[in-house]
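Supplementary Text 2. Reproducibility record for the structural model of the 58-residue chain.

All settings were left at their defaults, and a single model was retained for analysis rather than an ensemble. We include the record here because the model underlies the residue-level annotations in Supplementary Table 4.
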Amino acid sequence: MSVEGLCDVCEAAEGRYTCDRCGAFVCPKHWDADAHVCLECAEVAEDPDQPSGFKLDD
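Retained model, structure tokens:
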């Protein structure tokens, strides 16, 4: 199955990855390849003031 479309973050570049946490379809610029999440989810995981219950694996 092929997925095509624009990045859900910038809405300009071609999306290539799907975030494992939120399901966003994102371009390489907005992708954290180590964590397999979009950069928005990666920022939430790194913010100690966010009660998201989400933590990236080390």
